[in-house]
Write a structure and sequence with these properties.
0% strand; mainly alpha; 6 helices
């Protein structure tokens, strides 16, 4: 029993790491002085993702044939989950940036944190806030952000349904515990 709980906990941590850590080390190709796709300390996000996916396959007990079907669907769910949560990640961070940019403030057109491209609707709302736009413009930008988030949420739900369709009940249960379904 304790072993199963430990495996579930490890699986959940690995799945969460698969979703968050690679983005934390994402970078512009020219920004690291010749390290290519490697991050700090020669961290290779692609290799890390591969190891995580191998652990997930092992934990799910999926054969290589099953995994050929599951992996792209699971990857799609993870990407869509990042899109849903990405516009909210660091949302409170706006309260800790100095007004008018500066260190930790204006991101200089680099997008959001962790190298993710920022949602255009979120960027437009942020810009409207910074330029102290009139209420009517703010309302329109808020509506656009909510619409974009709802669209991303629906895309995630559709991807999750496609994944569920190819899983055994036990695999579905494990991915549910990991927060992916």
């Amino acid at each position: 029993m304790k072993s199963n709980m430990l495996k579930r906990g490890l699986f959940a941590v690995l799945a969460a790491g698969m979703m968050v850590l690679p983005q934390a080390f994402a970078q512009n190709q020219g920004g690291r002085g010749g390290r290519g796709g490697r991050g700090p300390g020669n961290f290779d996000p692609a290799q890390f993702r591969q190891r995580i996916m191998e652990r997930i396959q092992e934990n799910l007990g999926a054969t290589d044939e099953e995994w050929k079907v599951i992996e792209p669907l699971l990857t799609d769910v993870m990407e869509k989950q990042r899109a849903v949560t990405g516009s909210r990640m660091g949302g409170l961070g706006m309260f800790f940036r100095p007004p008018g940019g500066g260190p930790g403030g204006d991101r200089g057109g680099r997008g959001s944190r962790f190298g993710r491209p920022q949602d255009p609707a979120v960027a437009a709302l942020q810009e409207a806030i910074e330029k102290k736009a009139p209420a009517s413009e703010l309302k329109a930008k808020i509506a656009a952000v909510r619409e974009a988030r709802e669209k991303a949420r629906k895309e995630l739900e559709a991807a999750q349904e496609k994944l569920r369709a190819v899983l055994t009940l036990e695999q579905e249960a494990k991915l549910t515990l990991a927060g992916l379904l």
